[in-house]
Specification:
Low-confidence stretches: 5-24, 294-306, 373-378, 390-482
EC number: 3.2.1.14
Mean pLDDT: 74
Main location: membrane
Radius of gyration: 47 Å
Shape: elongated
Pfam families: Glyco_hydro_16
Structural class: alpha+beta
CATH class of the largest domain: Mainly Beta
Subcellular location: Membrane
Number of domains: 3
Strand content: 15-25%
Number of helices: 6
Protein name: chitinase
């Protein structure tokens, strides 16, 4: 292995590429910037496994996600191909490692300006890189960044025996709290200590995911500094440009089901391993071979997801659940009390109405009046008593007088005693058209021989005092992105 040599460009050119690099390495939720109570915990790998990319994407889709473009899965490996401008096929692990060893067996893509890249990247933008320039085809670049701060003077390049684009080689990153090491085909080529990384501040020290894929650093739309660093402008008519990955062996030095940021320092000591006595979802998947999301056995249960939460998150969930339960109980108690009061009020009103009706009926009986024999009449005002009275026709219970007997209107009997008006078909019934079909004494009244008039006509509209119960229902609403 030849000694490292520098491909550093003048600082003025590198400044032009800063914006492009920042756009490629971003975080959806940065615990250092957004706060530890905002971002979710990082699902741990907490095991060791060799992923062989020689079948189909679905084999590992529980643990890996294609974030851009498409990947061609073949019997010899996964092919990441740039066919045209804008292509940047990328795969990313769904799990995190907290310290660990990652071995890549890959063949870089040839082509001017084409960059084949493997990277470890954390939520707060700690980064460990291996990059291959397709226009060079002889060397690999090693680099690191801390908290998203880029410093290209930390880059070191190493020649690969036999070249990087013609055959598969093993490239390894070994990351620990006390040192970071790079290997090529088993040969150690570089060590970085925290003290050498801006006095620890820029040393990668938070849980990382794994990213693999090529991109066109020489794209004509990129900044001049990026194109120069990539080795020149890319001519897409020279393509396609294919990077091939045979397998990736991942070992997580951390343990537990998840990693949690306990504060916003981004220090190694601020990371908490959760449920260290349990297997992570990823560890269970690789141990059982169920790494496809189409297999229901590979998904996390609710209890597993809850157990992977931080202590603060569990306390918050418990507090919210308790508050919600108390709210439901309080409302139920309020509703019961309100309904009980309403029922008591309705019962009291009903009892009062019943008593009033009883007293009124008793008054009629005491006066010898049948209340069902009333005929509507105009009220008469008595100036002596100051009371309004109503002249009514009432039934005579005295059984006096015959059919031709002269009687005052107020004492005219409803039925003549020498007639029978039973319903047709009953004893003594009259079958004529004017028969009164009643014998109860409370029948339609014969107004001076004019015939019976029905005092109970069918209503032509809603009955007065009947509430309207009608109602209607309401209406029934390219590049890396990390």
């Amino acid at each position: 292995m030849s000694p490292p040599r520098s491909f550093l460009l003048p600082a003025v050119l590198l400044l032009g590429s800063l914006q492009q690099v920042l756009a490629q390495t971003s975080s959806k939720c940065n615990p250092v910037l957004n706060g530890t109570n905002v971002c979710p915990v990082d699902e741990a790998f907490s095991t060791s496994y060799n992923f062989v990319f020689n079948t189909t994407e679905a084999q590992y889709d529980e643990l890996w996600t294609v974030t851009a473009g498409t990947i061609d899965w073949t019997s010899t490996g996964a092919n990441f191909t740039i066919n045209e401008q804008g292509d940047s096929p990328t795969i990313r692990s769904n799990f995190y490692i907290f310290g660990g060893r990652v071995e890549f067996w890959l063949k870089a893509a040839p082509g001017t300006g084409i960059i084949s890249s493997v990277m470890l990247l954390s939520d707060d933008l700690d980064e460990i890189d291996l990059e291959f320039l397709g226009g060079n085809g002889t060397a690999v670049q090693t680099n690191f960044f801390g908290k998203g701060i880029n410093n290209y003077t930390w880059e070191s390049d190493f020649t690969v025996s036999g070249g990087t684009v013609n055959d598969y080689h093993n490239y390894t990153i070994d990351w620990k709290q006390e040192s970071l090491d790079w290997y090529i085909d088993g040969e150690h080529v570089r060590t970085l200590t925290p003290a050498e990384a801006n006095n620890t501040h820029s040393y990668p020290q938070t849980p990382c995911r794994i990213y693999v894929g090529p991109w066109a650093g020489g794209d004509p739309d990129n900044a001049a500094g990026t194109i120069a660093w990539a080795g020149g402008e890319t001519d897409y008519s020279d393509g396609p440009f294919t990077m091939s990955v045979k397998n990736i062996h991942v070992t997580d030095y951390g343990n537990g089901t998840a990693y949690n940021y306990t504060d916003s320092t981004g220090l190694w000591t601020s990371i908490e391993s959760l449920n260290v006595a349990e297997n992570s979802t990823a560890a269970t998947a690789v141990s059982t071979g169920d790494m496809s999301s189409s297999d229901s056995g590979s998904s996390s249960s609710i209890s597993e997801k809850f157990n992977s939460l931080s202590t603060g998150s569990k306390v918050a969930i418990a507090a919210c659940s308790g508050a919600a339960a108390l709210g439901v109980v309080a409302y139920a108690l309020f509703y019961c009390i309100r309904q009980r009061k309403r029922g008591q009020q309705e019962a009291a009103l009903a009892a009062k109405q019943l008593e009033d009706d009883r007293l009124e009926l008793e008054g009629y009986k005491a006066a010898g009046v049948n209340p069902d024999g009333f005929s509507e009449a105009t009220p008469t005002y008595d100036p002596k008593t100051g009371m309004a009275t109503r002249d009514v026709m009432v039934e005579d219970y005295s059984a006096t007088g015959g059919q031709n007997e002269k009687m005052v209107p107020g004492a005219t009997p409803l039925l003549m005693r020498n007639q029978s008006y039973s319903p047709p078909g009953t004893p003594n019934a009259h079958e004529d058209a004017y028969s009164n079909p009643y014998t109860d004494g409370f029948s339609p009244v014969d107004h001076n021989g004019q015939g019976f008039s029905n005092m109970h006509p069918a209503p032509s509209g809603p009955l007065p005092g009947v509430p309207d119960r009608s109602f209607s229902n309401g209406s029934q609403h390219g590049g890396y992105y990390r």
